[in-house]
Amino acid sequence: MTHKTLGYGIIGAGYFGAELARIIHALPTAHVAAVCSPEDAPALAAEVGCDVVGSVAELVARDDVDVVVIASPNDVHLEPALLAARHGKHVFCEKPVALSYADADAMVTACAEAGVVFMAGHVMHFMDGVRRTAELIAAGGIGDVLLARAARTGWVDEEHESPGTPSWKRQRARSGGHLFHHIHELDVVQLLLGPAERVVMAGGNVAHQGTAADEDDLLLATLEHGPGRFSHLEWGSAYRRPEHYVELFGTRGTVRIDFQEVGVEVRTPDGVTRFPLHRSDAEDAERRVEYAASRSGGGVDYGNPAMRPPGWLIGIMEREVAYLHALLRGEREPDPLLAGLTDGHAARASIATAEALTRSLAEDRKVSVSEVPDAAPPARED
Ligand SMILES: NC(=O)c1ccc[n+]([C@@H]2O[C@H](COP(=O)([O-])OP(=O)(O)OC[C@H]3O[C@@H](n4cnc5c(N)ncnc54)[C@H](O)[C@@H]3O)[C@@H](O)[C@H]2O)c1
């Protein structure tokens, strides 16, 4: 670890890559050295004063790049992560880190073997309300957790998108569909209940058949996290009444993390307590207004390179970047509650469960998550 100014290389200069670059640019001990992106790179380079490079190989080989930020579409995260590790560069990779367990495992393993950090961009870990919930549960505040329920649903009309050319975010092969693209809720549920052991999923494309977006628009997933611990999660764009929440039911009380009404509510026999989801009541209020104004329901809206993230989202991105930066500069110790983000655990666990759920739907059976690593291709012997 080092106290020097750290150089960052950005891969993907769209909605998220550009905002991450702006946040890094604002840090006094960081600089954005270069950006690589087939589109949007010149504008970002002009804004943050960095170089544009034509290939990932060129970016990772630069001496002034210490950390590679991967914010390209979900299906192209593997190659830059492996190349970065090969050049001894730390990796920050947006979620979902990969669309298969084999790829996620290869990325995490390559970084571990190279002795560099691999941090998954599971930004919900940096929400105050999620963190307080994790602390409350660890302290036994709602007793033994029996059940988590989560939903991230809404309705997407085809005419919201350019007909015939949906964003890559609505193409299953590129995004992984709602399950992978919106892996946040799965990740948070596993953070709070532990990893899933056996899973089953039903669903399909029930309301958008014949449109250019080919993702499943209704997904119902049930997870067993060990004896007496279950969760049920729903995702999709076939829901005329949008919902977005994570709820926990314990032997002593409940917690509702509400992303729509925005806030966290704890109910126990001692009474009802509420606390903000984001950094302040103002950020919670901003999100409440945004969701209420959304045509599809805020949870299934997508950003694009022409948009800036809302303030509440920039707030948690700032915390995420600040955490990684301080860790890499040796200015702080790892936070035990965030350890899973930088040791590969959260990345591997979320993709393993998503892959098991995908297999359950395809093969019409309950699947043990432990089957998934066995499905990875055998190591080459040459
Ligand atoms: N954590 C979150 O809440 C959150 C929110 C939005 C996006 N994301 C993630 O961030 C990543 C980027 O999403 P986005 O919203 O910025 O998408 P976007 O479509 O706005 O931008 C994608 C960018 O990647 C570039 N690109 C395309 N192919 C590339 C390649 N092969 N190599 C390098 N760059 C390439 C595009 O030119 C574009 O600039 C995705 O993995 C997405 O899931 C995370």
Automatic annotation (TrEMBL):
Domain Gfo/Idh/MocA-like oxidoreductase C-terminal: 135-369
Gene Ontology molecular-function annotations: nucleotide binding
Domain Gfo/Idh/MocA-like oxidoreductase N-terminal: start-end pairs: 7-122
Family annotation (InterPro entries): Gfo/Idh/MocA-like_OxRdtase_C (IPR004104), Gfo/Idh/MocA-like_OxRdtase_N (IPR000683), Gfo/Idh/MocA_Oxidoreductases (IPR051450), NAD(P)-bd_dom_sf (IPR036291)
Taxonomic lineage of the native organism: Bacteria, Bacillati, Actinomycetota, Actinomycetes, Micrococcales
Protein name per its UniProtKB record: Predicted dehydrogenase
Region (Disordered) residue spans: 362-382
Family named by the database record: Belongs to the Gfo/Idh/MocA family.
